[in-house]
């Protein structure tokens, strides 16, 4: 179940010693053969000197062989931070295994100039292991801890493992690594005061495991009536796979009859079934419509699609410049007539502004037939847009050459927020991810001041989602996903959540992320269980390595679960839809019974 499983194989001292003893025995046999040759040469030298071997050569060979296996394996008293270094070979194949890279070496954390930084004075912590490893301490190392084995795994151009001789040495390494990581990410020493400054008292458990309240994970939701978790033996079943006419850019899954795929030709319409989506043979062309579309909106395929007005309308947003997501406006498509009805402009106080992302006011608001507002996000802006004028009347598109969206509320921040993505909850609270890894929570009544802020781990947040009730946030970076429980215990001992929302809606059951040609699926109930096997012996932020993988022939554009309306009667989960540039597939997590 995933490539990580092969890395979890145990390797023990006895196994390592057996390999070494076998190697030593082989070398001993070579030594005995050489010694025999040496003696035979000495006994025959007086009668057949012309055929005798060079005694000097044989002595040199004996000395070389002797050194190989006579070296003591106990650490030298002068060797600081002794470890055994292992290398994982074979990838995700049946022949994958761990091999000893260095039987005994040492590690150190050293502060060096960051070669990737233009500022020569900028320095960072680096982990060095013998002569084989030299890695900048970061989340990209994907450090994985096995406390019961006194071992850690990590990635640095290859997959490595360190095995420590004692529990104390293992714990010392983990503490040093976490402190160096903190300083590399936040640019300050990992003192108690600085940790509180970064994380706040409520979330100090991120870097101080002994202060973490794991009961929040257990009590966040009641799963007593939930179906049994997915068993590892259950297979994924591909229900449908169809050609998508190429150039797929975005996927918009509906909760009603239809779903939509945006590609270079236009918007492809699909019919929703409980086994996935199936093409209806209908395409809304970009060059159709009742109004004239001008400018770069025609020259660039929309990258973002948003369903509105009971899924009868769709907003399409295209980048204003190649290579950048920011747009100066969007197109509104009437799905029922198959026409583009207008192009809207983003404007504030008479000046043009851009948006990098849009989303519905709330989860589920796309089903509201009277919906006229939606949320917008730019690098330093968070706002709500209204398709009606300031007096509350819908703008007359037929008589308006350049209809302008009305900025109803929001805030334009000073430089530095670097917003990247956002999502809304069931009641309209907003979660925003930033370039520096921070995740901010805003209430629906105030977009000026974040109600709560999570510091993140330094890597840019490139995608966000949040559960309907707002208790869980899922952030995606280039190298990892981070799942945040927004509940915490305040100074008065009361349980609070970073967002105040309703408790409506079904419970989410799976998490899915896309990496190149792979879609990776986690069991959400398993991930939230603080007693899960993956978390055994882990400290602080925990990592779950139990997942299923879907492999496609080309890079995946988007993977999303359909609405619960389309979950089969014999399955608690709706199908997963996976879109690539050329194909769209519908996949059941449980297969047919």
Automatic annotation (TrEMBL):
<feature type="compositionally biased region" description="Low complexity">
    <location>
        <begin position="43"/>
        <end position="53"/>
    </location>
</feature>
<feature type="compositionally biased region" description="Basic and acidic residues">
    <location>
        <begin position="1"/>
        <end position="13"/>
    </location>
</feature>
<feature type="region of interest" description="Disordered">
    <location>
        <begin position="1"/>
        <end position="55"/>
    </location>
</feature>
<feature type="domain" description="DUF7135">
    <location>
        <begin position="44"/>
        <end position="200"/>
    </location>
</feature>
<dbReference type="GO" id="GO:0005737">
    <property type="term" value="C:cytoplasm"/>
</dbReference>
<dbReference type="InterPro" id="IPR015943">
    <property type="entry name" value="WD40/YVTN_repeat-like_dom_sf"/>
</dbReference>
<dbReference type="Pfam" id="PF23581">
    <property type="entry name" value="DUF7135"/>
</dbReference>
<feature type="compositionally biased region" description="Basic and acidic residues">
    <location>
        <begin position="25"/>
        <end position="40"/>
    </location>
</feature>
<feature type="compositionally biased region" description="Acidic residues">
    <location>
        <begin position="14"/>
        <end position="24"/>
    </location>
</feature>
<feature type="domain" description="Vacuolar import/degradation Vid27 C-terminal">
    <location>
        <begin position="257"/>
        <end position="494"/>
    </location>
</feature>
<dbReference type="GO" id="GO:0005634">
    <property type="term" value="C:nucleus"/>
</dbReference>
<dbReference type="Pfam" id="PF08553">
    <property type="entry name" value="VID27"/>
</dbReference>
<dbReference type="InterPro" id="IPR040458">
    <property type="entry name" value="Vid27"/>
</dbReference>
<dbReference type="InterPro" id="IPR055559">
    <property type="entry name" value="CYPRO4_DUF7135"/>
</dbReference>
<dbReference type="InterPro" id="IPR013863">
    <property type="entry name" value="VID27_C"/>
</dbReference>
<protein>
    <submittedName>
        <fullName>Protein CYPRO4</fullName>
    </submittedName>
</protein>
């Amino acid at each position: 179940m995933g490539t990580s499983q092969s890395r979890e194989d145990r390797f023990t001292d006895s196994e390592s010693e057996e390999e070494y003893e076998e190697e030593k025995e082989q070398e001993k046999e070579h030594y005995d053969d050489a010694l025999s040759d040496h003696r035979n040469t000495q006994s025959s030298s007086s009668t057949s000197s012309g055929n005798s071997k060079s005694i000097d050569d044989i002595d040199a060979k004996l000395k070389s062989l002797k050194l190989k296996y006579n070296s003591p394996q106990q650490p030298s008293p002068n060797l600081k931070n002794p470890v055994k270094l292992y290398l994982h070979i074979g990838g995700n194949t049946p022949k994958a295994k761990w091999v000893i890279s260095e039987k005994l070496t040492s590690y150190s954390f050293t502060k060096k100039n960051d070669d990737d930084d233009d500022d020569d004075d900028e320095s960072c912590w680096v982990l060095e292991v013998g002569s084989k490893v030299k890695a900048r301490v970061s989340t990209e190392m994907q450090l994985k801890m096995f406390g019961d084995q006194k071992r850690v795994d990590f990635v640095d151009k290859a997959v490595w493992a360190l095995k420590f001789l004692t529990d104390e040495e293992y714990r010392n390494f983990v503490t040093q690594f976490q402190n160096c990581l903190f300083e590399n990410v936040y640019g300050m020493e990992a003192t108690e005061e600085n940790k509180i400054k970064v994380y706040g008292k409520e979330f100090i458990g991120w870097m101080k495991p002994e202060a973490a309240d794991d009961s929040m994970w257990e009590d966040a939701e009641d799963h007593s009536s939930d179906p049994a978790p997915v068993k590892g033996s259950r297979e994924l079943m591909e229900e449908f796979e169809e050609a998508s006419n190429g150039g797929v850019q975005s996927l918009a899954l509906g909760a009603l009859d239809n779903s939509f795929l945006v590609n270079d030709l236009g918007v492809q319409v699909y019919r929703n079934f409980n086994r996935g989506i199936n093409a209806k043979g209908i395409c809304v062309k970009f060059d159709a419509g009742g109004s004239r579309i001008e400018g770069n909106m025609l020259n660039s395929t929309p990258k973002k699609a948003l369903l509105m007005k009971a899924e009868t309308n769709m907003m399409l947003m295209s980048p204003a410049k190649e290579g950048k997501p920011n747009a100066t406006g969007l197109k509104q498509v009437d799905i029922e007539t198959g026409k583009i009805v207008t192009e809207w402009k983003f404007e504030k106080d008479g000046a043009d502004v851009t948006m990098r992302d849009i989303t519905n006011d709330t989860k589920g608001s796309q089903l509201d037939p009277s919906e006229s507002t939606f949320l917008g996000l730019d690098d330093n802006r968070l706002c709500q847009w209204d398709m009606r004028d300031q007096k509350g009347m819908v703008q007359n598109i037929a008589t308006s050459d350049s209809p302008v969206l009305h900025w109803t509320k929001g805030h334009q921040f000073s430089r530095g927020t670097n917003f990247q993505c956002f999502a809304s909850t069931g009641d309209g609270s907003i979660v925003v991810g930033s370039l520096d890894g921070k995740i901010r929570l805003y209430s629906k009544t105030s977009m000026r001041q974040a109600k709560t802020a999570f510091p993140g781990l330094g890597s840019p947040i490139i995608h966000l989602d949040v559960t309907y009730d707002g208790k869980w946030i899922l952030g995606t970076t280039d190298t990892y996903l981070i799942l945040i429980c927004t509940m915490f215990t305040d100074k008065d001992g009361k349980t609070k959540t970073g967002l105040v929302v309703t408790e409506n809606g079904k419970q989410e059951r799976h998490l899915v992320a896309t990496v190149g040609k792979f879609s990776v699926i986690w069991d959400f109930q398993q991930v939230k269980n603080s007693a899960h096997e993956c978390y055994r012996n882990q400290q602080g932020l925990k990592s779950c390595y139990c997942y299923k993988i879907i492999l496609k022939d080309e890079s995946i554009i988007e993977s999303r679960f359909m609405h619960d309306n389309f979950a089969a009667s014999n399955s608690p989960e709706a199908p997963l839809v996976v879109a690539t540039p050329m194909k769209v597939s519908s996949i059941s997590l449980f297969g047919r019974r």
